[in-house]
């Protein structure tokens, strides 16, 4: 009896040591500190990075609690230096997945560069099917009041009105904090220079389609061949289309950023991804100066002259193939530039010369849009810890 007891005690001890060892080993082996994390939004954007000669992100698959049920894993190269994930589409999926990533104990993201790399609707005023754009500002344009157009006040150009405002051109009186994000301009310029060296794909389907835009002189870029463009991006859960909404959201972009941003692409995730990354930065887990927002044109946000808005929407995404291929054409050199220049340049970071962060000034500094910093130019976190520190003597009394 005693013998059985001692034997099981011995076995239990061995088991405990083995389990403990395995946990420790798993922890050291499975903590990744990627140099670049690629953020895709749906399967075709993710697949653009697979089967390429430069690196293989399918060498390590890591299941992350909190990821989308459709895309439960992060994918990394064997050494963990390059990783990729798929958020799932629109704002809720993007915010949830990136929050799960930022909080995951499997990753050290404090030095990681994030490359948001997706397709988008594009304005023919600035770009075309297959264009590769890099944004400094991301604006959540649909975070507004909305009337059905049949019930809107007659003098309003569309049914959209900023929240808390009584007119479409009045700055929003109620801010939720996610209206505008600004990312590192120095890093954006590096990405643009790198992408400009790439040869972009084009195809006859896109060439034939974009000719339609040549009849309107305002749509010159829409009718031209794809290129790399520095212009800003608008986020909306609603996949909208048409001249009126395009003009309305151009106006919203200008209004929300006090004239700093130039609207050119429309997508369903970026402000959500940026909000989750900003909260990660506030928690000390992410460096907000290491974010690149790249979007490639897959369809036009508005019809060509003589086409209905419905025809423009239901034709689908005529530039889909080249938009996906140009994610890779422009994106791979950006990833390899960061990884190969790690020691020489990128590990220590690219110092921004512009304000970075949200419309509240949560990361510190003062935005040149919106009401200015609501934290008096300090980080929201520092302000809170300051308040905690100040309250300590009171607690001690
Ligand atoms: C990772 O997952 C992909 C499919 O998503 C698969 O093709 C690949 O073989 C997996 N890699 C490993 C190492 O299991
Ligand atoms: C979305 O993010 C962009 C920056 O990437 C910012 O310019 C824009 O104002 C944001 N919009 C909203 C509504 O948060
Ligand atoms: C956009 O702003 C311009 C200038 O303020 C205005 O004339 C136009 O009606 C606006 N368009 C829409 C659709 O809001
Ligand atoms: C932006 O415009 C609004 C409305 O005109 C104004 O209240 C705000 O002070 C401006 N912000 C900056 C930073 O100029």
TrEMBL record:
<dbReference type="GO" id="GO:0055085">
    <property type="term" value="P:transmembrane transport"/>
</dbReference>
<dbReference type="Pfam" id="PF06516">
    <property type="entry name" value="NUP"/>
</dbReference>
<dbReference type="GO" id="GO:0009116">
    <property type="term" value="P:nucleoside metabolic process"/>
</dbReference>
<keyword id="KW-0813">Transport</keyword>
<comment type="similarity">
    <text>Belongs to the NUP family.</text>
</comment>
<dbReference type="GO" id="GO:0005783">
    <property type="term" value="C:endoplasmic reticulum"/>
</dbReference>
<feature type="signal peptide">
    <location>
        <begin position="1"/>
        <end position="21"/>
    </location>
</feature>
<protein>
    <submittedName>
        <fullName>Purine nucleoside permease</fullName>
    </submittedName>
</protein>
<comment type="function">
    <text>Nucleoside permease that transports adenosine and guanosine.</text>
</comment>
<dbReference type="GO" id="GO:0003824">
    <property type="term" value="F:catalytic activity"/>
</dbReference>
<dbReference type="InterPro" id="IPR035994">
    <property type="entry name" value="Nucleoside_phosphorylase_sf"/>
</dbReference>
<keyword id="KW-0732">Signal</keyword>
<dbReference type="InterPro" id="IPR009486">
    <property type="entry name" value="Pur_nuclsid_perm"/>
</dbReference>
């Amino acid at each position: 009896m005693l013998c059985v007891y001692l034997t099981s005690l011995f076995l239990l001890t061995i088991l405990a040591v083995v389990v403990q060892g395995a946990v420790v080993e798993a922890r050291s082996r499975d903590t990744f500190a990627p140099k670049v994390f690629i953020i895709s939004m749906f399967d075709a954007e993710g697949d653009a990075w697979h089967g390429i000669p430069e690196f293989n992100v399918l060498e390590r698959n890591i299941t992350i609690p909190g990821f989308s049920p459709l895309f439960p894993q992060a994918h990394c190269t064997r050494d963990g230096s390059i990783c990729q994930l798929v958020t799932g589409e629109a704002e809720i999926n993007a915010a949830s997945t990136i929050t799960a990533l930022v909080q995951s104990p499997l990753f050290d993201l404090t030095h990681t560069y994030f490359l948001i790399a997706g397709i988008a609707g594009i304005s023919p005023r600035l770009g075309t099917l297959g264009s590769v754009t890099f944004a400094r500002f991301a604006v959540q344009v649909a975070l507004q009041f909305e009337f059905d157009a049949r019930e809107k006040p007659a003098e309003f150009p569309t049914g959209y009105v900023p929240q808390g405002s009584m007119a479409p051109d009045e700055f929003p009186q109620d801010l939720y904090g996610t209206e505008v994000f600004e990312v590192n301009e120095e890093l954006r310029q590096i990405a643009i220079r790198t992408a400009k060296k790439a040869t972009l794909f084009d195809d006859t389907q896109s060439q034939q389609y974009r000719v339609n835009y040549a009849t309107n002189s305002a749509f010159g870029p829409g009718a031209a061949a794809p290129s790399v463009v520095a212009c800003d991006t608008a986020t909306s859960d609603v996949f909208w289309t048409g001249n009126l909404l395009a003009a309305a959201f151009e106006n919203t972009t200008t209004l929300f950023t006090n004239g700093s941003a130039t609207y050119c692409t429309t997508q369903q995730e970026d402000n959500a991804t940026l909000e989750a990354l900003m909260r990660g930065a506030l928690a000390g887990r992410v460096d907000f100066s290491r974010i690149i927002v790249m979007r490639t044109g897959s369809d036009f946000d508005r019809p060509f002259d003589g086409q209905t808005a419905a025809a423009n929407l239901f034709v689908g995404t005529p530039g889909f193939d080249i938009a996906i291929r140009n994610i890779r054409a422009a994106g791979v050199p950006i990833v390899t530039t960061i990884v190969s220049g790690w020691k020489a340049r990128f590990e220590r970071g690219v110092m921004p010369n512009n304000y970075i962060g949200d419309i509240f000034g949560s990361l510190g500094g003062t935005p040149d849009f919106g009401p200015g910093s609501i934290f008096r130019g300090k980080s929201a976190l520092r302000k809170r810890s300051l308040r905690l520190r100040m309250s300590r003597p009171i607690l001690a009394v």
